[in-house]
Write a structure and sequence with these properties.
Elements lengths: L9 E8 L5 E8 L7 E6 L4 E8 L1
Antiparallel strand pairs: 1-2, 1-4, 3-4
Bound molecules: zinc ion.
Length: 56
């Protein structure tokens, strides 16, 4: 058996509302991308757009 599976290079991360800590979205992320992901997205709990940051 030759070759290592390359599909492991992509991981699934959650986008967590920075205000209420709810996991509202998830995204696929390349492991080689070292920065934390941040997006402004709508949070149904806060009922407004908030900053969502990468979480586990
Ligand atoms: Zn929220």
């Amino acid at each position: 058996m030759r070759g290592v599976a390359k599909s492991k290079a992509v991981v699934q991360v959650y986008l967590v509302c920075s205000e209420c800590r709810t996991r509202n979205y998830y995204k696929k992320k390349n492991k080689q991308y070292k920065k934390k992901l941040q997006f402004r997205k709508y949070c149904p709990v806060c009922k407004k757009h908030t900053l969502h940051v990468e979480g586990k």
